[in-house]
Each structure stands twice: as C-alpha cells, then as structure tokens.
Design brief:
Blueprint (H helix, E strand, L loop, with lengths): L2 H20 L6 H24 L3 H19 L5 H19 L1 H23 L2 H7 L2 H14 L6 H22 L8 H20 L3 H34 L6 H32 L7 H28 L18
Helix pairs in contact: 1-2, 1-3, 2-3, 4-11, 4-12, 5-9, 5-10, 8-9, 8-10, 8-11, 9-10, 10-11, 10-12
Length: 331
Amino acid sequence: MDLDAFVAAHRAEWTRLDELVRRRRRLTGDEVDELISAYQRTATHLSVVRSSGYDPALAARLSTSLIRARAAISGAHTPAWQSVRRFAAVSLPVTIYRVRWWWLGAAAGTLLTALLIGWWVARSPGVQASLLSKSQIADLVNHQFRNYYSQDSATSFAFKVWTNNVYVTAEVLILGAFGCLPALIPLLNLAVNLGVEGALLIVHGRAAEFFGLIMPHGMLELSTAFLGAGAGLRLGWAIIDPGSRPRLQALAEEGRATVTIALGCILMLATSGVIEAFVTPSPLPTWARIAIGLFAWALLLGYVFVVGRRAARAGLSADISEAPDVAPVSA
C-alpha cells in the first residue's frame, strides 16, 4: 500500500470528522448522519493502517479522532434544563390538549351534577333536615365554612391542602384505569359536597361568602381534579377500546401520557394550594381575591388551548422517540 497516496486520498475525510466533532452541539440532522458515516469510514481506514503496520503515528492519530467521535455519538445527552424546558413548553401542554374532551366532559358532568344536587337541597327543607340538624347547619353557615380557611397557619394549611388534593386527583386518575366507572365515584363525592354546602350557604343568605371563598382557588383546583379524572377515564377507555392500536400499545402510550399529566397536576395543585392558603382567607376585597384566582385559571387555559394547541398542530408529541435503525459500531 502506498501510504502517502492513502493519506492524501482520505485526509479531507479525517479533517471533516474532526470538524464535526468540534461542532457536535450545533449539528443539524444531516450533519449528525454525516458524523456517523465519517466515523464508520475512519474506523475502516484505521483498520487498514494498522494492518499495514507502516505508520504507528498515523494509527494513533486516527484512534484519537475515533475516540472523540465515539464520545460525540454515543455519549451525547440532552442537558437537564432542556428536558425541563421541553416538558413545560411541549410535553405537558400538548398532552393535556389531547385529553381536552375527556377533561371538559368530566368538568361538565361534575358541575352539572353539583348544580342539580344544590337545586334539590335548596328547594327541600326536608332534605336539609335529613342531612344535618339545625345547630349543625347554623355552625356550618356561620362559622365552620369560613373558619376552615384560617384554622391553621398559611404555610401548614397550604401543605395540608396540597397533599389532600394530590391524593384526590391521584385517586380519580388511577381509578380510571379500572374500567372508567370507578373514577366517577370521587367525582360524585365532589359534586355532592359542592352542591350541599353551596345550597345551605345560599339559602341562608351566604351566597357571596360561598363564592368569595370557593372561587379564588376553586377554579384552578377543580380544573386540576377534572383533568386528573379525564386522563384516568381516557386511560381506562384505551383498555376497553384501543381502536386500531394493539391493546398493549394503547395502554403503554396512554399510560405515559397519564404520567405526564400527573406531574403537571402536582404543579397545578401546588399553585392552587398557595392561593387557597394565602389569598382565599386574606383581607383583600372579594373582587380582588376572585381576580387572582381567575388570572391563574386563565393562565392554565391559555397554556393548554394556545401553547398545547399550537404544539399539537405542529405534530409535536410528548411520547418517546423511536429507537434508531442504525447504531455506529466500534473498530
């Protein structure tokens, strides 16, 4: 083998490999493919040089280039901050957007049930008497409902509310996987509590107090609970009717989406917990407290129906990528 001719023929390829390795953090998709191809060709060249035994220095130089290229190919990783950014900007909003009809359905069904229960209780003194005694109703209306939000320190109450709401949301989310229907039980309990307490306060002239204390945190808190229920119901339905997908594939895909939503619910419930502990019982005017809650709720809706919708229309997904078809092999 004419070593000089061999080096002259392939020097440009080796130089290009070194250049791609230096620019590895800024490579396009085509350049990544080029890097892998250049790595494989250079590995072949090193084998030829080693078998000739003529130039140990050239062999060492090519070995060093290959080591760096191998690290660039197989050792590359996405920085943690980029993963967090993708989760916040793509994964979470697009996943919530894609379960929007289940989410909105859970919300509509629960609120409509609460409204019907409240109307029934408000119009039926006999039903009210069967639920609570007069003294218990008086205590609920005059003291218990209002004092609930200020009975503990704000920090302690925020943590207490957050853990309780996480438990409730996890309950409806997980129960949805068991054939959908079990997830409706916590939603029914929620509707009953809203309807009964709302009716009792309203018929006793405390409507402003009821809505003034519920709405600041309730818009975001209830939306999160409905989201968890919707995600759980969709997961359960994927098991019952996977559509054109194999059942195991549908379960895996919806399961991963559900985990993404669960993480988002934890963050949303932390926000609503802070509002419930620090804003709801605060001395701010009712309109100001409701405005703060409305602002947080509007941010959630904009996040989902603007950011999530845009990501969905762009074809982006929170799911894992397919494994590569070709992996580089070492010399």
